[in-house]
Amino acid sequence: MVILQTLIAAMVTNSPSFPGVAELRAWDPRGWALALLLHVTVAEPAFYWAHRALHRGPLFSQYHAKHHSSPVTQPLTAGFGTPLEALVLTAAMGAPLAGAFAAGAGSVSLVYGHVLLFDYLRCMGYSNVEVVSHKAFAAVPALRYLIYTPTYLSLHHREKDSNFCLFMPLFDALGGTINAKSWELQKEVDQGMNDRVPDFVFLAHVVDVVSSMHVPFAFRSNSSLPFATRLVLLPLWPVAFAFMLIQWFCSKTFTVSFYFLRGRLHQTWSVPRYGFQYFIPSAKKGINRQIELAILRADKMGVKVISLAALNKNEALNGGGTLFVSKHPNLRVRVVHGNTLTAAVILNEIPSNVKEVFLTGATSKLGRAIALYLCRKKIRVLMLTLSTERFLKIQREAPPESQQYLVQVTKYQAAQSCKTWIVGKWLSPREQRWAPPGTHFHQFVVPPIIGFRRDCTYGKLAAMRLPKDVEGLGSCEYTMERGVVHACHAGGVVHCLEGWGHHEVGAIDVDRIDVVWKAALKHGLTPA
Prior knowledge:
Elements: H1 2-13, H2 29-54, H3 57-62, H4 83-102, H5 108-125, H6 134-139, H7 150-159, H8 170-175, H9 182-194, E1 200-206, H10 220-223, H11 237-249, E2 254-261, E3 264-274, H12 284-301, E4 305-308, H13 315-318, H14 322-327, E5 334-336, H15 339-349, E6 356-359, H16 365-376, E7 380-384, H17 388-397, E8 406-409, E9 420-423, H18 429-432, E10 440-443, E11 457-461, E12 463-465, E13 470-471, E14 484-486, H19 487-498, H20 513-522, E15 526-527
Parallel strand pairs: 1-3, 1-4, 4-5, 6-7, 6-9, 7-8, 9-10, 10-11
Antiparallel strand pairs: 2-3, 2-13, 12-14, 12-15
Helix pairs in contact: 2-4, 7-9, 15-16, 15-19, 15-20
C-alpha cells in the first residue's frame, strides 16, 4: 500500500495540471474546510458502501478475508490487505485532497496534515488502546457518531457484520449496521484499563536506552518477544536517548504492562530511571523519592502488594525497602523485595548430592541467606570475601553445630576442585578459568555472566513461570520468554495470593525460604 500510494502521489505531482511545489501556499484555511466537507460527504459514505461490499461473497473470501486474518489487531493491520483494498483506501484518502486542489485551495500543510491525520486515525482504531475516554462520550453523546474507537473496530473484526465505517459511526447508524454493544463495551474496556485498582504491582526500572524500546506502548511486536538488541531499532536510539533525558528531569512512575491472574489485576510500573543512574551518588535521593511516591500512590489506590525490582531494592540505596517501611509505618500496601523466593529458586536448583559449593557475592543479602540455608543442610560453603568482619557476622548467625560448614576464602583458586559455583558477583574470563571442567554456574548476578567456558554449564537468572490460568499477558519481562518472570516478581505474586500481612524488606528470613517455595508451587508457579 505504501508503494502504491507513493506511485500515485508521484504521478499526480508530476502531471502538467499540478502546480509546482514552490508555487503552493504553506497554509490555506479554505482548503482545510473543503477537504473536511469532502471527507464527510464523499470519502466516508464511499468507503462505508465499499467496505460493506467487501464483506459479501467472493469479495470477502478472495480479498478482504486476508485483512481479517489477524486475530488481534495492531496498527500495522490498518495497511494489511490486497491491492484492491489499498486502492479503496487511497481513493478515500485522496478524494478530499483532489477536491481541495481542484478548487485552487490546496496547500503544503493540507497534504501533510491530511495524510498524517488519516493514517493516525486508522492506526488508532487498530491499536487496541482506548485513546478517547468513555467519559467524553458520556458528556457529549453526539461525539460517538463522529469518531470511532478501537473497541468499535475490534467488534467489527470479531463479528464481521457491523461497524463498517471509516472513522464516523454516523454512517453505520444511517445504514443500520451499528453494533449495539459498541459503546457499553468501550466503557467497560476503558474503565477496566484505567479505573480498576490493581491488586499487585511490580515496581521495575529501565535497564538502559536500548531496552527502553522494549515496552509494549513503543513496539508491541518487539515487546512480545524476549529482549534482544535488534538492528532495526538502532536508528531510533537518538529518540530513545532524548526520552531518557526528558524522563530524568520531568517524569513520574508510569504503567508498563498488565495481566490478570485469578480475577486479580497485576501491573508492572516503572520508575523513570535507568540502570546507570543508580550508581550516581547525587541521584540516590531523587530515585528514592520516586520509589517512595510510587509506594504512597499504590497505598492510596488500595494496592495490596508492591514488589521492588532489581536496583529499586538495593541495600545501599534504601536497605532493601526498609527505608520506606520505617518512614511510613502505617502503610496498608505490603512492600516486598521478593528475594526470599529468589533464594529458594537458586537453592532448589542445586542437586541434592552436592556437598560443597563456592559462593561469590557471599556477604550480599542473597549470598548471606544462601550460605546460612546451605550450612544448615551440612553443605560446606566456600564464601569468597575479603571482609573477615562480614564473614564472622554471618557465621555467628548460623546454629553453633552448622558454623563449621561456613569457610572464608579470599581467592578464586580455593575453588579449583569445586564444581558447583553460585555466582553473585560478576566473573571475568580470567576468574572463570579457576573452575574445574564440568562446573555449573548458578547465578544471581545482574547482568548475568558471559559463558566463556565451553566445558562448563551456565544457569539462567532465577525465574519462575506464572500459573497456566494467567490471562492478558502480551509482553515479555526483559530477556524472559512470555509467561516467565523474575523470581522477585514471582515472590510478590505469591505474597499477594497468600494474603500475607507482613512486609518483606531488609534481610532475608532464612526460616521462610521453604515456606515461600512451597506456597509458590501450591499456586501453580513453576521453575523456569
